[in-house]
Amino acid sequence: MHFNLKLKEMNKLLIVGTVAFDAIETPFGKTDKILGGAGTYIGLSASHFNLQSAIVSVVGDDFPQEYLDLLTSRNIDISGLEVVKGGKTFFWSGKYHNDLNSRDTLATELNVLADFQPKVPQNFKNADVVMLGNLHPMVQSSVLDQMEAKPKLVVLDTMNFWMDCALEDLLNVIKRVDVITINDEEARQLSGEYSLVKAAAKIHTMGPKYVVIKKGEHGALIFHNKEVFFAPALPLEEVFDPTGAGDTFAGGFAGFITQSENVSFENMKTAIIHGSNLASFCVEKFGTERMLKLNKEEVVARLKQFKSLTQFDIAL
Amino acid sequence: MHFNLKLKEMNKLLIVGTVAFDAIETPFGKTDKILGGAGTYIGLSASHFNLQSAIVSVVGDDFPQEYLDLLTSRNIDISGLEVVKGGKTFFWSGKYHNDLNSRDTLATELNVLADFQPKVPQNFKNADVVMLGNLHPMVQSSVLDQMEAKPKLVVLDTMNFWMDCALEDLLNVIKRVDVITINDEEARQLSGEYSLVKAAAKIHTMGPKYVVIKKGEHGALIFHNKEVFFAPALPLEEVFDPTGAGDTFAGGFAGFITQSENVSFENMKTAIIHGSNLASFCVEKFGTERMLKLNKEEVVARLKQFKSLTQFDIAL
C-alpha cells in the first residue's frame, strides 16, 4: 500500500526573550543560579502545543550546554540564540515576600544582554505568531523589523521598568502589536487610569486590539473593544515560586493561538485558559522544575478543573 | 371554562441583619445619613427572586416611615423588625480610601442594636432558607433557636470583629450553619491558613459544608469538599461605593437558592453568579440608590455579560 500523504507544515511561533540565570528566594527556600528568563519560560510553555518554535536571545559562554540541550529537546530552534564568547549570561536574583505577591530584586546583571542585537533565523522570518517577551522595546521593534511576512498575530509582554525609562520606544513598539500582556499595576501606569476597564480602553487607542491584564493569583482579563473575558487563576494549596508564571501564561496563550491558526476573540478566550492552566503548574516548584516534568495527562486533567471552576448553567 | 388551579406557596427566606443609617465618604463624594445595614441590602437583593422574605432586626423611632414603606413595597415582611420607642437606630459611618479596597470606620453607634433580642415572626419559623447577616453570633444563634422546622439551608455571614471579640460564640454558631460567607482576610484569620484552599478545608471542619470566600473586586470562590467554583466580579468602568456589596451578594445567593429549592453544589454555582451580578449593580451608586432603581431587564442583560465573561469552549 502506498500513501501519498502530504503533511501540512506545523505553524511557526517566534519567541524573543531572555534566557538567563535566576537565583530565587521564597518563604519555602532558596536556589543557586538556575535556568530562567522570559524566553525560556515562554518556550517551555509553548512546547505543549503542536508547533515549531524558535527563541531569539543571547547568553554568555558560561551558559551550560545542558540547558541548551534542554531547549532543543523540546523542539525549540535555538539557531537565533547567540552565545557570546567570553560573555556572561544575564543574571537576576530576587526574594519574594511572605505573601508571594511582591518581591525585592536583589541583583540584575545585564551582562551580554546590554548589547543584544537580536537576529531572527531566516526560516522564522515568516512566523505565524511572534511573541515579544519582556525586553528593551528597541529589541522588540528590531525583531518586528526583520520579519519578511506580516505575522497573523504579534503579542507583546512588557513591564513598568520600560515605562519608567524607555517610554517613547515602548509606545513605538506597542503601536505595532495586536496583543499586549501586562499586569494590573502596569496597565494603570501606562494608561493613567485606575479602572482596568478604562485602562484597557486607553491602551486600545495606543495600538493593540487586544489587551490582556494579568492579575497574578487573581487571574487574567482580556479586553477587545467592548468585550471582555476573564480567566481565574486556579486556587492552589501551595504557591511555591511565582517566577516565570507570567511568561508561562504568555507562552501558553501564544502557543495555543499558533497551533489553532485562529485569531478570533472566541479562540483567544480558550488561549487565555490554556495560558492560565500552564501557569498554574509553573508556580508549584522552583523555577522551571515543574514545567520540565509536566506531561499531557496532567495538563488535560487540570483543564478539566478549569472547566468545573468556571462553567455554570443559567436560564436566561 | 373553569380552572381548578392550586398555586404553590412561594418559598420563604428569613433574613436577620442590621437595618441602619450609614454615612459614607468615597473619593467621589459623601452622603448624609442614608438607609443602610446588612439586613436592608440582603432584603433588597433577595427581592429580585420569587419568594417570601422577612427581615428580623431592630431600629429606633428615629427611623423614617418612608424607609419602612420602602421595604414593605418590596414584599419584605417587617413584622419582625422591632421599632424601639425612644431608641436611636444603629449608625455606621466610614470613609473609603482612593482604591476603594480599604476603608476607615469613622463612627459605630450601636444604639438599639446593643440590646437587640431577635424575634422570628411565627410564619417564618418554618422558613426554607435562613440568611444570618453579619451581627453578634449570639443574635445569629438565637434566630436558629427559634426555628420550628429545620431549614433546607442556613447561610451565615460574619466579619473579623466577631473573631476578635466573640470567637467562642462565633464558633458555636458556625457549627450550626451549612454555608459561611466571609472575605479572604477573614478566612485566613479564622483558619490560620494563608492559602485559601487550605483555609476553606479547615473551615469545613468547623461545620459549614460550603465555604464562600468573597474577594471583592477579585470575585468569589465557593468550596465544597474538594470541589471549587469561582465567580469573577464584573469589570466595571467605575466603582462608586462598595458599601453593601457583600450583603447584596449574600442576598442574591440566598434569594436564588430559596426560589429554586435546590441546595446542590451545581445550583450554588448559579446562585453565586446571581449574587455577583446583583452586587455589581450595588457598587455603581451611593448606598442603596442603584438597587432601588434596578429592573429585571438590567439584571438579565448583565447575567448575559457574566456568561460571556466566563464561558469558553475547550476540546478535551
Would you kindly provide a brief summary of this structure?
The structure is a homodimer of 316-residue chains. The first copy, chain A, has helices at 38-46, 65-73, 137-145, 160-165, 167-174, 184-191, 196-205, 245-260, 265-282, 289-292, 296-310, and strands at 12-16, 20-26, 29-30, 34-36, 52-60, 76-77, 81-84, 91-96, 103-109, 129-132, 153-157, 179-183, 210-214, 220-224, 227-231.
- What proportion of the residues of chain A form beta strands (DSSP E)? 15-25%
Inertia-based shape of chain A: globular
CATH homologous superfamily classification of chain A: Ribokinase
Biggest sheet character of chain A? 10 strands, mixed
Give the % helix of chain A. Answer: 25-40%
Oligomer: homodimer
> What is the CATH C level class of chain A, in words?
Alpha Beta
On the 0 to 100 scale, the average pLDDT of chain A is: 95
CATH arch. level architecture of chain A = 3-Layer(aba) Sandwich
Radius of gyration of chain A: 19 Å
Which protein chains make the most extensive interface, counting residues with beta carbons within 8 Å of the other chain's beta carbons?
A-B, 39 and 39 residues
- Per DSSP E runs of 2 or more residues, the count of β-strands of chain A stands at 15
User: Could you say what the CATH topology of chain A is called?
Assistant: UDP-N-acetylmuramoyl-L-alanine:D-glutamate ligase
Structural class of chain A: alpha/beta
Low-confidence stretches of chain A: none
Organism (chains A, B): Flavobacterium swingsii
Domain Carbohydrate kinase PfkB (chains A, B): 29-290
InterPro entries (chains A, B): Carboh/pur_kinase_PfkB_CS, PfkB_dom, Ribokinase-like
Pfam families (chains A, B): PfkB
